[in-house]
Design a protein that fits this description.
Four Helix Bundle (Hemerythrin (Met), subunit A); alpha+beta; 13 strands; 14% strand; Formiminotransferase-cyclodeaminase, Chain B, domain 1; 7-stranded mixed beta sheet; 54% helix; Alpha-Beta Plaits; 558 residues; 19 helices
């Protein structure tokens, strides 16, 4: 069953006092099972974005503790900053990540809001998916008037808080109000300009944000003229810390307006007003796919192959968007999947082998343990084979004079990259399959019931240990179509690489075949064994046939 995970991204109204920021952020990790992913302070905005993830109940507890700590340490009566705000913890959104619906997330937001209002005495406004009425869905409406207008707002019956006091008490004067909600993943994104003019930055923001701007008509009335991009909110401001003006954009649905589209439109709008975009800045974290999509966007523009490794794509996205304009950009600290991966012992453990360097992998294989063994090595030899085929496709896509063929070679390279990643997974999966057999064999075997359960567990684990090398065979054979195509159509100077790739793929397939056979030896399920062995024999024959074809093509050209 998929684990239920939500992200929480509270924004606190303190961006300058590091001791206060750290003390507030630290309470998050006092809740077991919650991972603090990012703490991103801004001096000019006097605001810090904190990001953490976990299961819903634990995240809500961590959020409550953070809001309470911020209430203790932040006094809104003296707060000043560039960003709109109305409370010590200004906003606290819950974002569904996996295994949970938006409706369920909204229910948790309401429960959190009720607790904050009741136990902490803070006025709470629910927004986005948790909103109690249409006008409160928009965060800007809830926060209109900001902290300075809170006294008046709380007296207005139409703006009575969803939870908490509806009066400006001494406690509220210190803490302000809070907006708590449930929303889709939001990317807080700033675009850097070569100007110090807030007015011009605002004009560009109005050009591109969905709400656009109000334009006065001849009769004195105002007409709302929408901007270019849907699901984008934005304003312009001057950041003294950097000495430049920025567009402060919230991309509320990156499936509608991706980061690279927002950046490109900002460049166009700025240029039309005689201003240049020099780069951009992410506040908080971003999904990995958003950067991969940006890389693909710019690679297509350059008519370059899309079938390059993920690490290279991330570099291209960073450079294309100018994410390192104001300082170094570390994907390991800004991409949410990398943060989860780096802080999860389970994830690191699940990729124990592929994280090793070549020397360490060989040492691990040569040791006294039976795993990693031939199955993992077979999968890795397959990785090397498809990597060579993908290399030829990428080189061919970039060859001078073959510009009209780049897209076809790119498609082959993308296919190869997908197969390479699956084989990398199988390197460790073969060892995990062995570990599951060992775990099953270690089950108790005292009573008849325990013996039966142990035997069933061993059978299932053995089937997994058979299916893994069988899949290695299938992927290796599939990859040989790439090597054949590259031997026929690819860069002539690299035809030997396609040949070596085919030899590796065949070796990976035959290695998988041997592991299928040996793991089938002790299996009692005759029907399963017969079916699997028949598949393995057919794949072995196909691998040998394709290798012969690729070698014939290669030898004819070398």
């Amino acid at each position: 069953m998929q684990r239920r995970l939500i992200e929480c991204v509270p924004n606190i109204s303190e961006g300058r006092d590091r001791a206060k920021i750290d003390a507030i952020a630290a309470v998050v990790e006092t809740v077991e099972g919650v991972r603090l992913l990012d703490v991103d302070p801004g001096k000019a905005t006097n605001r810090t974005v904190i990001t953490f993830v976990g299961e819903p109940e634990q995240v809500c507890e961590a959020a409550f503790r953070l809001i309470k700590k911020a209430q203790e340490l932040i006094d809104m009566r003296g707060h000043k900053g560039e960003h709109p705000r109305f409370g010590a913890t200004d906003v606290c959104p819950l974002v569904p990540i996996s295994g949970i619906s938006m409706e369920e997330c909204a229910a948790f937001a309401k429960k959190l809001g009720e607790r904050v209002g009741k136990e902490l005495g803070i006025p709470v406004y629910l927004y986005e998916a948790a909103a109690s009425e249409e006008k409160r869905k928009n965060l800007a409406n809830n926060r209109s008037g900001e902290y300075e207008g809170l006294t008046k707002k709380l007296k207005d019956p139409t703006w009575k808080p969803d939870y908490g006091p509806a009066e400006f008490t001494d406690s509220v004067a210190r803490s302000g109000a809070i907006a708590i909600g449930a929303r889709n993943f939001l990317v807080a994104y700033n675009v850097n300009l070569n100007t110090t003019s807030t007015r011009r930055a605002n004009a560009i923001a109005f050009d591109i944000r969905e709400a656009g701007r109000k334009v006065k008509q001849a009769d004195g009335s105002e007409l709302q003229v929408p901007g270019k991009l849907k699901s984008v909110k934005g304003i312009g401001w001057y950041i003294e810390e950097y000495g430049v003006a920025q567009l402060s954009l919230n991309l509320t649905d990156i499936a509608v307006t991706p980061v690279h589209v927002a950046f490109d439109e900002a460049c166009k709008a700025a240029e039309a007003r005689g201003i240049r975009v020099t780069g951009s800045e992410l506040v908080g974290l971003i999904p990995k796919q958003a950067l991969l999509d940006a890389a693909d966007f710019y690679l297509k523009r350059q008519e370059r192959s899309l079938g390059i490794p993920e690490r290279e794509k991330i570099k291209i996205a960073v450079k294309s968007l100018g994410l390192d304009d104001l300082g170094p950009f570390d994907p390991q600290k800004k991409v949410i999947e990398y943060m989860l991966e780096d802080t999860s012992t389970g994830s690191a453990g699940n990729e124990r082998l592929v994280r090793m360097d070549l020397k360490r992998f060989s040492e691990e294989t040569a040791g006294e343990s039976p795993a990693p063994g031939g199955g993992s090595v077979a999968a890795y030899v397959g990785v090397l084979g498809v990597s060579l085929g993908t290399m030829v496709a990428n080189l061919s896509a970039h060859k001078r004079g073959w510009d009209e063929r780049w897209e076809a070679f790119s498609q082959w390279a993308e296919r190869g990259e997908k197969l390479r990643n699956e084989l990398l997974f199988l390197v460790d999966e073969d060892t995990r399959a062995f570990d599951r057999i060992m775990a099953a064999m270690g089950l108790p075997k005292g009573s008849d019931e325990e013996k039966q359960a142990r035997k069933a567990a061993i059978t299932e684990a053995t089937k997994g240990a058979i299916n893994t090398p069988l899949r290695t065979m299938q992927v290796c054979v599939e990859s040989m179509a790439l090597m054949k195509a590259m031997a026929e159509q690819g860069l002539p100077a690299s035809v030997s690489d396609a040949g070596v790739g085919a030899l590796c793929a065949r070796t990976g397939a035959i290695g998988g075949y041997l592991n299928v056979r040996i793991n089938c030896a002790g299996l009692d399920d005759a029907a399963f064994k017969t079916d699997v062995l028949a598949q393995a024999e057919a794949l072995k024959a196909k691998a040998e046939e394709l290798e012969a074809e690729v070698m014939a093509l290669t030898l004819a050209k070398v």
